[in-house]
Amino acid sequence: MQNHTTLGQCLILIFFLPYLTQADTLSVLHLTEIIEEAKMNNPEIKAAKAYYEAAQLRTSVLRNIMDPMFSIENAGEVRMYSITQQLPFPTKLTTLSNFARIESEEYESKYNKKEQDVINKVKRSYAGLFLVHKKIETIEESISFLNQLFHIASHNYSIGKVSQVDVLRAQVELAKAENDLLTLIDKRKIAEVRLNTLLNRDVDSKLGIPEEIDTSEITLDIDKLYELTRENQPELKAFNQMFKKAKVMVSIAKQTYLPDFMFKFTQQEMDNSFTDRKFMVGLTIPLWFWGKQNDIIREMNANLKMAEMQYNAILNKVLLAVKESKINLDNYRREQALYKNSIIPQADASLKSALIAYGANQTDFLSVLESERILIQFELEFYSAKTDFFIALADLEKAVGINLVKN
After folding, report:
1. Which of 380, 369, 368 is nearest to 343 (CA)?
2. pLDDT digits 0-9 by tens, 143-165
3. CA distance 145 to 345
4. What is the value of pTM for the model shown?
5. For the chain, which residues make up each domain, given as ranges?
6. Does domain 2-400 have CATH number 3.40.50.1370?
7. How far apart are CA 232 and CA 398, in angstroms?
8. Which of 51, 153, 175, 227 is deepest in the core (most CB within 10 A)?
9. Alpha-helical regions (H) of 279-364
10. Nearest CA to 149 among 136, 162, 160?
11. Per residue in 253-298, pLDDT tens?
């Protein structure tokens, strides 16, 4: 029986050697580095940045002035040259320039929001990869323990202390753990593909082992978080700028009552000499204001009211997200502390006692297996709570609009 045990352990070692070797050679995957990489290479961020940069170029006042028109008119031996320039009322130029500036700020906020959305996805994917690695480590430790238990059961069976059922149960548990490990290795590949996609890398690029995720406690109270949200949340800023744009549009609509100007210079040419220079100044008269300007103003006021309500709706949404994330953060912090400081140490001590008792033939095999299963379950639940804490922190930072933990 001992020969079969040795053979089984060798086969297990040969089968998992490529995975173990790969894990040993992988570098540490730092969260701060891949966040910076995502900022540089993520296609969604790059597209939002390009859109913002294009909006910046629309702020020039000259964009709101019509190009001058040059014309030549022939009448026999007389030739007329003229240049015509149309100009809006001076306040309209200032207002339109202000509108373009606010629009540029709006797209900057949308760019910042897109960046935060992608960073949140990176953190969530990183947390998922971290959790898979921790599960793999836990199952590998379980396999090592089950191998030890299998050796003890085989030894006790060889000297007649236990029945062959214990050996078979150990083999079954070991096979199940090995299958769980293979499943987790496949899940790790999926997690790597998800993160590679966000980084705009080749989907099959190898990633390192995630460093320990930060589970620092946030000491800010909810009122301070609300204050920071109102000041920094990019989506909220974007809707606030849309509200400001709507205000400017009301001003632009009211200025349609004001006239626009036209300047014209004419020069006559006859017998190779220039004569009869003429200057003309004209202006538009908003004569049909009751059927056109009044309706435009009512429309812009309705848009202003809609923009105000949209801003209030987004404000309520982000404040709700802050509240929910803060509550989740506190719950997961307590949960992981409970597992770390109380539940896991007790389960670990219980397993060690059960293993010693089984080696001395003082307890049954099922009691040892149950103790090991409970410990593995608690360890996995601890890492899940730790990952959930990190994700809740990432969601809270996204809701508030700034990093709450200093790197």
Report:
1. 380
2. 998 888 888 888 878 887 777 88
3. 17
4. 0.81
5. 2-400
6. no
7. 10
8. 153
9. 293-338, 344-359
10. 162
11. 888 888 889 999 998 887 777 777 888 898 888 776 666 778 888 8
